[in-house]
Amino acid sequence: MNIYTARREKLSAFLAQENVSLLMFEDTEGRRDASIRHLTGQPSDALLFLTPENVCLLAPWDVNMADKLAHADEIVPYNDFGTNPVKALAGAVTRFGLDTSAGKPRVEVPPSTPHPLFLQYAEALPNCEIVCRSQGLHSRETALRSIKDEHEVRIYRQLAELTNGMIAALEENVRDRLLKTETDVALFIEAEARKQGCEGVSFETLAAGAERSFGIHAFPAYTNAPFAGKGLSILDFGLKYQGYASDVTMTFARDTSPQQEALLTLTETAYHLALSLVKDGTKARDVAMAVDELFAGAGRTMPHGLGHGVGLEVHEEPRLSSREDNQWVLKTGMIFTIEPGLYDPLLGGCRLENDVLLGADGPEVLTKSHIVRLS
Amino acid sequence: MNIYTARREKLSAFLAQENVSLLMFEDTEGRRDASIRHLTGQPSDALLFLTPENVCLLAPWDVNMADKLAHADEIVPYNDFGTNPVKALAGAVTRFGLDTSAGKPRVEVPPSTPHPLFLQYAEALPNCEIVCRSQGLHSRETALRSIKDEHEVRIYRQLAELTNGMIAALEENVRDRLLKTETDVALFIEAEARKQGCEGVSFETLAAGAERSFGIHAFPAYTNAPFAGKGLSILDFGLKYQGYASDVTMTFARDTSPQQEALLTLTETAYHLALSLVKDGTKARDVAMAVDELFAGAGRTMPHGLGHGVGLEVHEEPRLSSREDNQWVLKTGMIFTIEPGLYDPLLGGCRLENDVLLGADGPEVLTKSHIVRLS
């Protein structure tokens, strides 16, 4: 069976189970959702409608692209619905001939649906019950996406090899002073990524020289400022390969003070602590809390989460955060980052981030990023 | 008066007028809104709360960055609210001491608020009336943003100069065959943009050689495929300067067939037709419909809108689309693209796009993109 049909089949079983007659996904500007790519292969800009019988209708913005790349039972240009989600939903309800004789069929729309649009759906389809839940069928799909299938693990192994080649090349070229500025480093990655057959980078490379590394995410992402000079420089980058994202952070340390070295060591300790706690069945929040406690003991606070799933989006479930509402449990087949980081207005910042596959025998660190000590 | 205070003052007058006691903006991953940058200078990742008395509270993710770049009456780390929008809204209601003695004060949340989050706001704040409207105060801010102030027009003149320098350099380097692949072209723009002092590009450059130009937006954005070979190649790019975006498209045509030349001429005719119709007081939809009619007469359909406002986001209001619900009226001070394009699976695609300032004396084409005929 085609991988996309197989994925949709898993999801459509939940439609039957939860008595939902039609499930809508939306991937448009301002409301991106990689689930459509996961379920059909269509890379962007489309709506998708799925039934409990595992029949789907894809309404892409660019129908030429969909004809080449997408797998769906039916493809209808979004333009045929006036590029209007209300008309498209109403059109899908009609095409699938939803039965309204025995009560209102349940139609589930994305949890990202803006409240005013939700009201428009309800008004346009008085014979349907419009369902919009933060923990509904879209969450089921998110959970399905959080566990990578064999096809995806195979892609991630290739992606890790590409990312590790980049890490090695970056370390060598920075050591040899061939890459001197933030822009040098970022454009080296852009060019090499394409040469290696990647779709590109998975997010705008963040290259922050020693003067700017105190910020969690440097702004602008990179400039003509020196990179890897005296102090702590952060390089956060990822590659995109066959749709999938890697995400790693290297810290380059040169001529560091004892206080800066202490910051680096503490970050490395946190990284290894987190890895030692990662097991099938562990609560993601517990791992993050252990790192928070380690940092608190040293009088430090990490201003961001410990990690996040990676996949068709660079930030996916599960979240490894210590937020109270984090209910994620780590499971075999998940791929996520571990990325402890500390930022000090005077000392600068450091972060160490790798992508980890939770295998049957425990965590496997796919990428080989590390803190690079220069002198 | 500080430009940010002045902008907030215009908006806060509408709060008083519409009896809204607190207005919330959100600029977070998945729900980006450049209005916070427009109103405070904070470039990203924050919530903003504004009162009818023009007092504002900014809750940034990165407080170090906000202390350097943002202008607000009070800055409180988003972390203090558990990085949770419900807690932040409740916290702002408390801090501003909203008066609930004479009925429920109206609190307006962004129109992008997901329906489930809207329900959470309502539950957390039973003493307030939570307002979430597609045509509410956020639309007022969008309309304010659509008319550029003097400060912004000054930036756009500098940005146009930078963009025009890039257009000239691209044409020269492609003619001289110094830029041969899609990646060559895209990375030339990336590197030059930084050298010229831009924040970067305003969106991922779309470089589609003749084999791929049939797609509206090439996917992947650029590859190692040849650029500007025989046929039609499209280059859609923009620069970001002091927060503001330019957006232009060049088409490179080499050794074209008569049918391809006809596609180019029709696109140029549409471009000049659109420009001739752009006046203060004209309905944006009427301009788009005139172009649609021109194309229909030639048996062609344009699969995207005719243009869009540019500003702190690359796609802003007004929309120059022929959609029925497009109510925008063109006004002096608006800056928008005109970008007719046609795409044929066999002939390839072409698009001509420039940024236009609607001045008191009519349209002024700020950027100098054009169809480049090579032989």
| Total count of helical runs of at least 4 residues of chain A | 10
**CATH superfamily grouping of the largest domain in chain A:** Creatinase/methionine aminopeptidase superfamily
Structural class of chain A: alpha+beta
Task: Summarize the amount of helix of chain A as a percent range.
Answer: 25-40%
Relative strand content of chain A: 15-25%
> Numbering strands along the chain, what is their spatial order in the largest sheet of chain A?
4-3-2-1-5-6
Q: Based on Cα principal axes, name the global outline of chain A.
A: elongated
Instruction: Give the CATH level 1 class of the largest domain in chain A.
Output: Alpha Beta
The total beta strand count of chain A reads: 20
The main β sheet of chain A shows up as: 6 strands, mixed
Unreliable residue runs of chain A? none
**String of helices and strands of chain A:** HEHEEHEHEHEHHHEEEEEEHHEEEEEEEE
Terminal CA distance of chain A reads 55 Å
The overall pLDDT of chain A, averaged over residues, is 96
Pick out its properties.
about 375 residues, alpha+beta, Creatine Amidinohydrolase, Chain A, domain 1, Creatine Amidinohydrolase, six-stranded mixed beta sheet
Summarize the structure.
2 copies of one chain form a homodimer. Chain A is of the alpha+beta class.
Written account of the structure:
2 copies of one chain form a homodimer. Chain A is of the alpha+beta class. Chain A folds into 2 domains: 3-144, 3-Layer(aba) Sandwich (Creatine Amidinohydrolase, Chain A, domain 1), CATH 3.40.350; 147-374, Alpha-Beta Complex (Creatine Amidinohydrolase). Helices cover 35% and strands 22% of the residues of chain A. Chain A has helices at residues 3-17, 35-40, 63-69, 85-95, 115-124, 137-146, 150-175, 182-195, 258-277, 284-297, and strands at residues 22-27, 46-50, 56-60, 74-75, 106-108, 129-131, 200-201, 206-208, 231-237, 239-241, 244-245, 248-254, 307-309, 316-320, 335-338, 341-344, 348-351, 354-359, 362-365, 371-374. A 6-stranded mixed beta sheet of chain A has the order 4-3-2-1-5-6. A 4-stranded mixed beta sheet of chain A has the order 8-9-12-20, sandwiched between helices. In chain A, strands 7-10-11 form a 3-stranded antiparallel beta sheet. In chain A, helix 4 packs parallel to helix 5 and helix 7 crosses helix 8 (182-195). The model of chain A has no long low-confidence stretch (mean pLDDT 96). Chains A and B meet through helix 3, helix 5 and helix 8 of A and helix 3, helix 5 and helix 8 of B.
